[in-house]
Write a structure and sequence with these properties.
alpha+beta; D-amino Acid Aminotransferase, Chain A, domain 1; Dna Ligase, domain 1; 3 domains; five-stranded antiparallel β-sheet; four-stranded parallel β-sheet; 9 helices; 16 strands
Length: 293
C-alpha cells in the first residue's frame, strides 16, 4: 500500500476530492494541514499530528494555505526540506515557491519571453500615478493573492493619486500594476491545464458582467472552451519555465493584440475542469503520482 499525504485545507472541496481519489486507489488517507506541522531540525523529522511525514511514499500539495501570504513561502520551505530528505513532493517545491509570489513568477515569465499584459512594478506613488495615466485603466494586484482577492482597479482620474496612496497604505508596499486589457470574443479568461507537463484540457471563466473580473467569487462561471493550437503552445512554454510542475493551470487572456499570460498557477484548480470539461482531475492527478513514485 502506497502512503501518499495531501497538503491542503481539511474541509476544502478540492482537498477532499484528492483525498477521496487517493483513498479509493491506495486505501490510505492523510490530510496534512501545514498549520499543524512540526519540523524537528535536530532529528531531521517532520510530523503532522503524530505522523512522521518522512515515512510517506509521496506528498501532493493541493493548497498550501487558505489564502496566499508571505507565510506560505515558509511553509514551502518545510516541504522543500522534506523533498531534500527523499520524499517525492508534487509539484516541485522550488517551482511552487516561485509561483506563490506574483512578482517572482512574473519575472520568470518575462525573462522567458512570455507575452503578458503591460506591467509595471514600483514602490513610488508618483511612478504608479504616471503608469495609470499611461494605461488609462490599471489593475493593482497584491503580490500574494488568488481569485482576484485584494485587487483594485484604478482609472486615470483626478482621484488616482489618492486611490494609489490608499492602496499602498493598505499593506501593498510594492505595487504590481497591470494594464487592464480588452478581451477578444467575450469576457473570458482561459485556464489551460497541464498534468506532468502534458496538455490536459482548457476551461474558461466567463464573467457575469457585474464585476471587472471573471472569477467565480464575483459571479463568474466555468464554461467549455476549445483553444487554438497557438494558445496551447504558448501556455505550454509558460508552464515549462517552472520545472517539474506536476499539475498546473496557465491563465491566458485573448486580447485584440493576441494572447497573453496572466500567471501560472502553483497548484491548479479541479473545479473548472470538472464543471466545464467533465474531467476528474483529482483522479487523474492521483494516477499520475502513483505512476511516478
Amino acid at each position: 500500500m502506497k502512503k501518499i499525504g495531501v497538503v491542503g485545507i481539511p474541509k476544502g472541496w478540492s482537498t477532499l476530492r484528492l483525498l477521496d481519489a487517493l483513498e479509493a486507489k491506495t486505501g490510505f488517507r492523510l490530510c496534512i494541514d501545514m498549520a499543524e506541522v512540526r519540523l524537528d531540525l535536530d532529528t531531521g523529522k517532520v510530523f503532522c499530528q503524530g505522523t512522521d511525514l518522512t515515512g510517506l511514499d509521496a506528498i501532493i500539495v493541493k493548497k498550501i494555505a487558505p489564502s496566499y501570504t508571505p507565510d506560505a513561502l515558509d511553509r514551502m520551505e518545510i516541504l522543500r526540506f522534506l523533498h531534500q530528505k527523499g520524499v517525492p513532493v508534487f509539484s516541485s517545491p522550488d517551482s511552487m515557491l516561485r509561483l506563490i509570489d506574483r512578482l517572482s513568477g512574473t519575472t520568470v515569465l518575462r525573462l522567458g519571453g512570455i507575452p503578458m499584459p503591460p506591467t509595471v512594478v514600483t514602490e513610488d506613488i508618483e511612478e504608479a500615478a504616471a503608469t495609470v495615466a499611461l494605461y488609462g485603466k490599471a489593475v493593482f494586484k497584491p503580490l500574494f493573492s488568488s481569485k482576484a482577492r485584494g485587487m483594485t482597479v484604478i482609472e486615470d482620474t483626478p482621484d488616482a493619486r489618492e486611490e494609489i496612496a490608499d492602496y499602498k497604505a493598505a499593506g501593498n508596499q510594492v505595487m504590481y500594476i497591470q494594464k487592464m486589457v480588452s478581451h477578444a470574443g467575450g469576457h473570458l479568461d482561459l485556464g489551460v491545464s497541464f498534468l506532468g507537463g502534458k496538455y490536459l484540457a482548457t476551461y474558461a471563466r466567463q464573467g457575469s458582467g457585474a464585476s471587472w473580473d471573471t472569477t467565480t467569487r464575483t459571479g463568474g462561471r466555468y464554461v467549455p472552451h476549445e483553444p487554438s493550437q497557438e494558445i496551447i503552445a504558448l501556455a505550454h512554454r509558460a508552464q515549462a519555465l517552472f520545472p517539474d510542475m506536476a499539475f498546473t493551470c496557465v491563465d491566458v487572456v485573448e486580447t485584440p493584440e493576441g494572447a497573453a499570460i496572466y500567471e501560472v498557477s502553483a497548484f491548479g484548480g479541479f473545479r473548472g475542469l470538472l464543471d466545464a470539461c467533465g474531467i476528474d482531475a483529482a483522479s487523474a492527478y492521483a494516477d499520475y503520482v502513483l505512476e511516478n513514485i
